[in-house]
Amino acid sequence: MTVRIGRLGGMVMVGLVASVLAAQAGAEPLAPERFDPSLRGLRFGWTIDETVAFLKQRVDNRYGVLIRDTMDVRDRDRLRRESLQEASRIGQEIVRFDGTRSGWNVSVVKDEFGQGFGEEMLHLREGKTHLYFFFADGAFYKLVISADKDGRDAHLRTLDEVYGKAANVVYEDPKAKTGLLALEWAAGTMTLRVADRSREYQCCTLRWADAARDQAVQAKWPVRTSGAIDPLILESMDDGSEIVDDEDPVGDLLGVKPAPKAKAKPRKK
C-alpha cells in the first residue's frame, strides 16, 4: 500500500522535523543540569519569583523520592517537616547590590557583582555547598556554586565527562604551565569557569553565565573582575573552531597520566 502525503501534509511534516532539529540545536551544551541533574529545567532569563518557585519544587522533588522510599511512618512525617522547613527558607536571602557595603564584598563572590547597577543575588545553602543566583534588571543570568575543596577532584571528573576538555586553562605560571588556577569552557550561548579557591576560601567555584548578558553587565562596572571568563575564548564561540592540545589539565590535577598514543603505521608503497 502506498501512502500519499499531500502538499499541506508534507509542509506539516517538514515543520515538525524542523521543530525537532531546532530544539536539539537549541539545547545548551554547557547547561548546569548536565553537571547537576537536580537543576534540570532551570532557565536563564527567569525572574526571582520564577527561580524561587523552581527551587522550592526542586526541594519537593528531592524529598518526594526520600519519602517514597521510606517505609517508617514516623520517618516520613519527619521528612515532610524537613521538606517544608527547607522550602520555606528559599527566597529569604535576596541581596540587592545598591551600593551598601556588606560582608559580600569580602566573600567568595566578591568579584561577581557591581554596586549600584540594579543587580541582585539569591543565596541558597545546602550543607557545605552554596548556590548563588545572580540577576540583572530582574533577569537571572549567572549561577555560581561554591563547593567544599574536598569534593574538587570528583567535580573535575564529572565536568570532564559531561562537558569535555576545557577550551582554556589558566595557570599561576603560564610559561611553565604550573599551578592550575582555572578551567574555562564556552559553547552555545553560555560560558563556564571552574576555579580553585582553596587558598582563600577552602572551596572551588563553578560559574555558569549567559555570555552576552554577562558581558553587558560587566561593561557597566568600573573595573573588570577576575570572575569573568577570558574574552579571547568568547571569540571562538560557535565558529566551528576547536582548540587541540595534547595536555590534559584535569588529569594533571588529579594525578592521572594520559595513555600513550599509538604510533601511526607507515603506509605500504
DSSP strand tally: 8
Structural class: alpha+beta
- Number of discrete helical segments: 8
Distance between the termini: 54 Å
How are the strands ordered across the major sheet? Answer: 1-2-3-4-8-7-6-5
Give the H and E element order: HHHEEEEHEEEHEHHH
Strand share of the residues? 15-25%
Work out the radius of gyration: 23 Å
Percentage of residues in helical conformation = 25-40%
The averaged pLDDT comes out at 81
Q: How many domains?
A: 2
Report low-confidence residues grouped into runs of 5 or more.
1-26, 238-244
Biggest sheet features: 8 strands, antiparallel
The geometry reads as globular
Primary descriptors:
single chain, alpha+beta, 2 domains, 34% helix, globular
What is the fold's blueprint, element by element?
Layout: H1 7-26, H2 48-68, H3 73-89, E1 94-97, E2 119-126, E3 129-136, E4 139-148, H4 152-163, E5 168-173, E6 178-187, E7 190-196, H5 198-201, E8 203-210, H6 211-218, H7 231-234, H8 249-254
Antiparallel strand pairs: 1-2, 2-3, 3-4, 4-8, 5-6, 6-7, 7-8
Helix pairs in contact: 2-3
What report would you give on this structure?
The chain contains 8 helices and 8 strands. The protein is of the alpha+beta class and 269 residues long. It has 2 domains: 38-92, no CATH class; 93-240, no CATH class. A hairpin with a 2-residue loop joins strand 3 and strand 4. An 8-stranded antiparallel sheet has the order 1-2-3-4-8-7-6-5.
